[in-house]
Amino acid sequence: MKKDELKKYLATRRMGWPYEDSYHVDNMGGHRFVAKIGDELAGLSYAEVSDNGKEAVMKMNLKGQYAEYGIGTELLELLMEDLQNSGLETIRYEIPRERYAFQIYRNLGFTVERQDEETVRFIWRRTILVTAFEPFGGETLNPTAEVLGMLPDESSGYAIRKLLLPVEYGRSAEIAISEYDRLQPAAVIMLGQAGGRSAISPETSAKNLMDCEAPDNAGYIADHERISEKGPDTLSSTLPVGKIVDVLAARDIPCEISDDAGTYVCNSLFYSMLDHNRGDVPTGFIHVPYIKEQGHTDKPFMEISDICMAIEVIIETISANGEIR
Question: Known catalytic residue: 212?
Answer without folding.
Answer: no
